[in-house]
Amino acid sequence: MTSNNGASNVVNNGGEIGKELPASIWDRLLLGDTRSPLLHLSTASRQSVASSNVDKLNNQQYQTYNNFALVKSMLLYESVRVAALRVEGRAQHEYPNSNQGWYATLFMIRGRALDRVVVPWGIVSLHAIIYTVIQETVYGGSINGDNMSLLQSWEVFFSFVLNSTLAFLLVFRLQRASDRYWTARYYWGDIVAKARTLVSGLVVHGQGENKDHAIRWLVAYSVAIMELLRGRRLYDGSIFAGVLVRSELDKLETSLHPPLYAMTKIRYHLRKAFGNTPDTPMAMAVERTQTLHRLELQLNIIQDCCGGMERIKATPLPIVYVSHLRTFLIVALLLFPYVYGPSWRWTTIPLVVLAGFAWLGIDCAAEECESPFDAKSVNALDMDAYCIGLMQTTLQEIRDSADEELERQAGPTK
Predict the structure, then answer these.
(1) In Å, what is the CA distance from 49 to each residue of 26, 30, 218?
(2) What's this model's pTM, rounded to 2 decimal places?
(3) For residue range 83-97, what is the model confidence (pLDDT) as tens digits?
(4) What angle do CA 94, 235, 206 make, to 5 degrees?
(5) How many CB atoms lie within 10 A of CB 74?
(6) What is the pLDDT of residues 175-194, one digit of tens each?
(7) Is 232 helix (H, G, I), strand (E, B) or coil?
(8) Phi and psi dihedrals of 372, rounded to 5?
């Protein structure tokens, strides 16, 4: 796709009336015409930024793609997009993963998300301290024979009935939350896989400008899903540098359901790319229709995955279960000193603190797993990394296709 380098006019770009920008969408992409840190720059300054980016690349290599505008624009601002996504997702990818060894995981603090349970844990610990101090200093910790026999029966009941029941409820909650987490990860993996298949089909079978537009909106769709799941309505335009211009980003951002808007744009350009006319030969018309049908099937799967993740976000465990479990959990932890205190004496304090840390920590882990899309949580899915991966593989596919086309144009090598 050849960019129209000569056309320019005065356009309204998010309130910047009077600034001259090229009329061609491809030229505007090359000049960083998106709502980003480049927004405040004049056209001349944007050209300077673009030239600087070209210098960072191999200039001759960059000029090779003059007739492939999408390759050129995505290649030019790849570092801008990656940097913006890494900043947005720094909470996830800057924190150790669970497979990085004992030392990295054993001594982490933030990854445990203890801020979610610090209040109940503090109440349980303080209660154990007060009880133990009173028992040991006021009553001397002495218990007569009859009371000791009654206490032992309570210990048996507490251990085998309450503790076992509570452990089952906690494990069930964690399992259900973990299922939600891994289901969300599966959906994201399916989106990336089907998007790669779709891009491959487009670069092989697609023709003309609409093929490139469909690919652009497919890349934007993945970011729109991420922002929708995180509950963001204001986008960092740098993420879309070289992919969407500001007018397109404004419409995407202000739509009621941004991923659905992007999906509609993809389907529109697919229809244009593979549409038939009365003059289309029968064999070609059948082939185009079949190809369009196969690509639409991939889009349907991608859209179903988006709906599945929205369902996960909007449907936590029923409040009756969580409320009853937490009430039961707090009551059990508060009863620990009364049941075991006479036997444990001063060790009641550290043992109750550790028991509270263990049980409340499991509930905390379940709550973290129930929120796989929280941008501030280090335990959430690293969706920015998925978007970076999709953008990079998309660029690779369209760039490989451009290289093959250039080789065909150059003719056979001697």
Answers:
(1) 16, 10, 26
(2) 0.82
(3) 999 989 888 887 877
(4) 95
(5) 26
(6) 999 999 999 999 999 999 99
(7) coil
(8) -75, -5
